[in-house]
Design a protein that fits this description.
Blueprint: H1 4-19, H2 22-46, H3 50-55, H4 59-64, H5 77-89, H6 93-106, H7 111-115, H8 119-123, H9 129-167, H10 175-202, H11 206-228, H12 236-260, H13 263-268
Helix pairs in contact: 1-9, 2-6, 2-9, 5-9, 6-9, 6-10, 6-11, 9-10, 9-12, 10-11, 10-12
Length: 270
Amino acid sequence: MINRQRVWAVMRKDWRELARNKQAVAPLVIIPLMLAVLLPAAIIILGNNAVLASSINGLQGFLDHLPDRVVPATYSTAQTVVYAVIVYFMAPFFLIIPVMVASITGSSSFVGEKERRTIEGLLYTPITDRELVLAKVLVSVIPSVLLSWVSFVVYTVLVNALGAPLMGGLFFPTWTWAILIVALVPLLAFLATCLIVAMSGRSTTVQDAQGSAVLIILPVVALVVGQATGLLLFDVSIALLASAALLVIDVAVFAATAGRFQRERIITRL
């Protein structure tokens, strides 16, 4: 039985320490700003611009391989570019936000405690191993999901405000994005954080943990590349299948992470 008070106490402690770490907070602002504001604004403002298409990696290839009937046939060339990029091309990029946030916050979960010399006191508290792992996971999952949702709201307002005159009205979000934000983002954030927390428990420094966490981002990057090259179109069916698969994987990975966590082994390494 999980004791929520003990889990919440650890989470509050970690959030206070994270708020004092300016090096960790800065990327949490920069990454969503680029993906939710700067990139979509440039795409909508410049519209059908050859220079823009060639300057964004994979954008021209994505437009060249766009399947038929994905974009309404009545759209002009400029409308097609904006719709395809905002609705389809940018979708996988939003999965980078929770993974990046998790890699920044989760990588210091246990190894950060070691560096601050607070790990011994934490491990000797009455909290169980499962509760401790859950607390460390939620410390990263909740901010990453909230930041992704805030970024999505900003993105929605921005693309509709800038794109409505060109598109003839509001055109975003779609059902694919609803599934992505409500289901895929939390599930992916939970999976990434579980793996990163497990790495953190075995790392000797925060830098080592962050270096290992980069590997977690690679599958998301592969999804972005597949979307950009037209090999994989991120639509409703793919989003639903990915959500179902991630739910099963999340349960298995958390059970394995919590099951393999042994505070005695960490204490002997202090």
